[in-house]
Each structure stands twice: as C-alpha cells, then as structure tokens.
Write a structure and sequence with these properties.
heterodimer, A: mainly beta, seven-stranded mixed sheet, about 0% helix, B: mainly beta, four-stranded antiparallel sheet, 12 strands, globular
Chain lengths: ~120, ~120
C-alpha cells in the first residue's frame, strides 16, 4: 500500500516562528503536493514538486516555501508563521501520468497547525 | 482558468436511500480527469472514483458511480444504498494534462446519513 506520512498530526506554534512540516512517501512517486484545507474553501494548492529540487507555485504560495532534496521527502516551510496560517495541511503524492492515464493522489493524514 | 464548483455545502439523507452529490467544472482543455474523494471525520482523504474526459461510459466503483455529462460539464457522484459510514465530506476534483499533474478541488459537500 502507498503510504504518505506527515511528521505531526497536531502542531501549535507562535507568531513569527519558523515552522517545518515534513512529508514522506514510500512509493517512489515523482509528484508531491502541499495543500491547506479550510472550511468552505476545500483544498487549496500551496506548492507542488514533480521531481527532486523542482517546485512550482500553486494557487496560494505566499508566506510558504518548500524543499525537495530527496524524492521521497517534501517539506513545507513557514518562514514566519502568522495567525492566518492556522489550518489543516495535507500532503499528497502521485505518479506521473501520460495523456489519458490518471494520477490518483495519495494523501497523508494531515497536520492541524495552530498559530497563536 | 479551471474551476470546480460544488453547490451543496451539506446534505442529509436517510440510510439506504441513494444520494447524488453535485459537481460542475469549467475548463477549456480537452483532456482532463475528474475525481471524487471522501474525507471522514478522521481527516484522511480517500480516493473513490475517476472519470477521464475521453471515457464514453460512466465510471462505477461498487456503490459509487459518476454521472458524467460532458456537454453540461458536470460530474455528479451517485452513492446507491447509502450507509451510516458514508457520512463524511466529499470533494470533487479535476486534473488537467496541459500542466504538470495539477489538480484543483471543490469546496466540498458534507453528507450526513440518518439511521
């Protein structure tokens, strides 16, 4: 079974702290994604990566950065956490599809981050 | 720009009844895929079903079927014979192939099954 793990289920940080959210997948997937989930807004893509050291901005990258030094690990970094970054953060991974093949995303359990 | 819309923030359904969750999408791409995910209260996202834009037949997976109407740009999820364990958030999502495996999600529908 594909397994996507996230370093913490719950995290409480203070405003201005640097926060690292780690995600690891064990199925050799090329693509990895970071989303945040807020009530009424669904999942919004923050950043994604389609290869080691490759990254692309999603829909809401402001205030975040990412790092992918190894294929299995994708880190989300909040350089200076703010209260409006309190949210559920979901990591996902998928294979690279071609044309009509599809890329089912496998999700981690999520990290609920509270910034005080 | 691509867009996914789920217009039902919440639904209540009696156990054993069928339920339809609405999803409409907007894209100018010809090649795309549509997904449905389930998110129980535990938080994990569970893949349910997929429909490719070129698939002529509606996708089915057990009690789940996807009512794909391409001309209307709708991809409704139908759950037959609903069960208490179907109570969850349901998200519709679209992937398009002109970008590097990018997917967008709708805002979700919270389904509650009454015993």
């Amino acid at each position: 079974d594909v397994k996507v793990t996230q370093s913490s289920r719950y995290l409480v940080k203070r405003t201005g702290e640097k926060v690292f959210l780690e995600c690891v997948q064990d199925m050799d997937h090329e693509n990895m994604f970071w989303y945040r989930q807020d009530p009424g807004l669904g999942l919004r893509l923050i950043y994604f990566s389609y290869d080691v050291k490759m990254k692309e901005k999603g829909d809401i990258p402001e205030g975040y950065s990412v790092s992918r030094e190894k294929k299995e690990r994708f880190s989300l970094i909040l350089e200076s956490a703010s209260t409006n970054q309190t949210s559920m953060y979901l990591c996902a991974s998928s294979l690279v599809g071609r044309d009509s093949s599809y890329n089912e995303q496998f999700f981690g359990p999520g990290t609920r981050l509270t910034v005080l | 720009a691509q867009k996914i819309t789920q217009t039902q923030p919440g639904m209540f359904v009696q156990e054993k009844e069928a339920v339809t969750l609405d999803c409409t999408y907007d894209t100018s791409d010809q090649s795309y895929g549509l997904f449905w995910y389930k998110q129980p209260s535990s938080g994990e996202m569970i893949f349910l079903i997929y429909q490719g834009s070129y698939d002529e037949q509606n996708a089915t997976e057990g009690r789940y079927s996807l009512n794909f109407q391409k001309a209307r740009k709708s991809a409704n999820l139908v759950i037959s014979a609903s069960q208490l364990g179907d109570s969850a958030m349901y998200f519709c999502a679209m992937e398009w192939y002109s970008s590097a495996s990018k997917i967008i999600f709708g805002s979700g529908t919270r389904l509650s099954i009454r015993p």
